[in-house]
Amino acid sequence: MKARGTSLGAVLGLALVLFAWPPSAAGQLADLQLRFDRESDSVRKAKLLQKLGEAQFEAVRQAEKAGDNSTVGLTLEKYRDNVRAVLNALKKQHPNAEKQPNGYRQLEIQARKGIREIAESLLVAPEPYKPPLEIVREDLAAMDDELLKLLFPNRPLNKKAANPPPPEKQR
Fold first, then answer.
1. Residue 8 domain flag
2. Which of 13, 108, 129, 156 would disulfide-bridge 125, Cβ 3.0–4.6 Å?
């Protein structure tokens, strides 16, 4: 089939290359970050964080291979800031996590994944770059604990013992 001197296959092939070809990793990360920043619904933002987090972790791995430890730190700090943004948006739009757990669950999973990725980065990071990564890990761990308390408010660990058990008498 010819369409004005150009084969239909060539036109479709060009369209496939232009529109369906995956963008570069840096371009994809920037695009995902832009979509994340523009998203106003907190649950969709939490779901988008899954894709954005994976792209950020991939960027971290590439930077580690290249020996660019500054980029590793900055990327993981941005990831932490993204997790915090989703948590604040969820608490504002859906304050009762126990009754509306949808975005909270995705965020808790992402926070755990981030803690694991930072732990792996800490293993290979030079000594001067470790303190900022440890701060990011502590921040993520604190957010993860907060998420668990919001999701499971009646958990035994959340309740403080009103009447501590009496100490056992020694015989």
1. no
2. 129
